[in-house]
Structure formats: structure tokens, C-alpha cells
Amino acid sequence: MVEIASLEDPRVAAYRLTSSPVDLIAAGLFVAEGRLVVDRLLRAPRYPIHSVLVTRPALRAIEGALASRPTPPPIFVLDQSQMNAIVGFNIHRGCLALAERPARETLSAAHLTAVRRLAALEGVNNPDNVGGIFRSAAAFGVDLVVMGPGCSDPLYRKAIRTSMAATLHVPFVDAGAWPHALDLLRDAGFERIALTPAADATPLDALAGDAARVALMVGAEGDGLTGDALAHADRRVRIPIASTVDSLNATVAASIALHHFR
Questions:
Q1: Out of 18, 61, 142, 169, which residue is the most buried by the measure of CB atoms under 10 Å away?
Q2: What is the pLDDT of residues 57-104, one digit of tens each?
Q3: Which helix (H) or strand (E) holds 205?
Q4: What is the CATH number of domain 109-260?
Q5: Average pLDDT of the chain?
Q6: Closest Cα partner for 216 from 141, 128, 108, 156?
Q7: Average pLDDT for residues 29-39, to the nearest whole number?
Q8: Is the Cβ–Cβ distance between 145 and 133 less than 8 Å?
Q9: Residue 113 predicted with pLDDT over 80
Q10: Architecture of the 2-100 domain
């Protein structure tokens, strides 16, 4: 444990990258913010921890998680005013951690062997929606999230924070060639169910929720799934809502459907 007097200290230089996602990715790192999220990161053995930057009160809050690591990471301690200077306000409650970013994997048949429920996202470029969908995926037993084109990074700081660290625990892979990746799901026996507000789509509550293997397809906020993606779906499904509302937020719609197929 090392006391840090200034963010100019070279030992914490990497934390000055936290406001630049491009620089963090180039450094092979991602950042977790807040005591609960950092606690859950420390308890996720798949991620090697670069270091932890904390205030004294925050350090006491994560002591148990730090003790769970076989090898404790470097711990840098500084005062709250210096912590606030990193992002301009105290969103992190005096607790940040940097972890090594794993190599992104591309969907293959091997990823699907033990999967019964998955979510396939296309164009979900809002990190709040990505984080929210991962949080619901964790809540409703989703085994895998497939990240199609145009999606926000699940390891972006805001996505991790919104998901309450679910992006660190629910496995995800890149889709690869799209929409051909959806053919791989069909070949593996998944029923591909596309969420859409279209009036001619099947109401969600008309479907049984116990299909052997389900791939729920979720599109971008506003535009929804592209025509190419919809053409690869086995079913187009809508969530019945009041006529005075045109559609649901992507996270809300995905959550309702994931609950249905839990």
C-alpha cells in the first residue's frame, strides 16, 4: 500500500487515462468505478488487476474483496480532493481500479455448447443500455451476450457502472460477420427471437417461455433491428403496450423479454 500525494506521481499515471476510452484501450486496460463495482471486479478472477486507487474510507470498504485475491494488487491511497480531480466529481466514492482488458473473442460453435439463453445485440451504442441489458441478463439467467455491429463496449466505464459490474460476470463475445453470425445460432438449435414494435409481430405473451434454446435479438434505441437482422429471425415479437406510447426503451424491452424466457 502506497500513499500518493499527487496525481502527477508516475505510479498512478494510468489513472489519468480514465477519461479517454481510446487511450485506455490502447493501454490494454479498463476502469471500474465505485466501491461496489470495484469489490465485484476484485472478486472476478478472470481479470488481472493492474492496481487500485482509493481513499482511506473506501479502502476499508473493499478490504474483504482485496483479501480474496490470491495476490493482492498494488494499492494507491490518496485524499478525496485528489480523487475528485480524476473525473471532476465524486462519482466513484473514492474508489477506482484498473484491470487488464482481455482479448475479445469472436462467436464460434464452441461458445454455444452449454448455452441455453443468450442475447444478441445489434447497434446498441448507448452504454447505459448495454449496461442495463447486461444487468438484466445476469438477473434472468442469460448465459452469453453476443455483441453485434455498432454496440458500445461492455468494458466502458459507464457500461460497467450501469450494469453494477454484470458486464464483468456475464460472458460476452463479438458476433463476427453480421448477420451471418445469426446463422450459427440457428445451426446450434437456437430459436432466434427478434424484438420489434411492429404491429404485425407476435405478442410476447403468446409465446411459451420454455423453448430449449433461445437467442433474443435486441436492436438500437429508436431504429431497432435492421432489416437484415430481422430477416434472419425465426420469430418477430412485440411487447403489447398502450396505443399512446410508440415503443419502449431498449433496456426495458429486453428486460421484459428476458424475464419471459428466463
A1: 142
A2: 999 999 999 999 988 899 999 988 777 776 655 555 789 999 999 999
A3: none
A4: 3.40.1280.10
A5: 93
A6: 141
A7: 94
A8: yes
A9: yes
A10: 2-Layer Sandwich (3.30)
Which residues touch 224 (CB under 8 Å, ≥6 apart)?
195, 196, 197, 247
Q: How many CB atoms lie within 10 A of CB 226?
A: 18
Averaged pLDDT for residues 215-234: 95
Beta strands in 27-161 (DSSP E): 29-33, 49-54, 75-77, 95-100, 117-121, 144-147
Q: What is the pLDDT of residue 90?
A: 52
Write the burial class of residue 132 (CB in 10 Å: 0-12 exposed, 13-18 middle, 19+ buried): buried
Q: Which residue has the higher pLDDT, 121 or 87?
A: 121
Report residue 103 as a C-alpha cell: 482479448
- Residue-range domain boundaries for the chain: 2-100, 109-260
Q: Are 241 and 212 in contact (CB under 8 A)?
A: no
- Between helices 127-139 and 250-260, what is the axis angle to 10°? 10
| 65: its cell numbers | 474483496
- Give CA torsion, residues 134, 139, 145, 151, to 10 deg: -20
Say whether pLDDT at 169 is over 90: yes
pLDDT at residue 172, rounded to an integer:
98
Q: For position 178, what pLDDT does the model report?
A: 97
C-alpha cell belonging to residue 172: 460476452
Residues facing residue 99 across a β-bridge: 30, 49
Q: Any idea which residue has 434472468 for its cell?
A: 140
Q: Give the pairing of strands 75-77 and 29-33.
A: unpaired
| Residue pointed to by grid coordinates 437484415 | 228
Place of cell 429508436: 222
Are the CB atoms for 124 and 219 separated by under 8 Å?
Answer: yes
Task: Find out whether 226 and 219 touch, Cβ atoms under 8 Å.
Answer: yes
- Say if CB 250 and CB 130 are below 8 A apart: no
pLDDT above 70 covers a percentage of the chain that reads 97
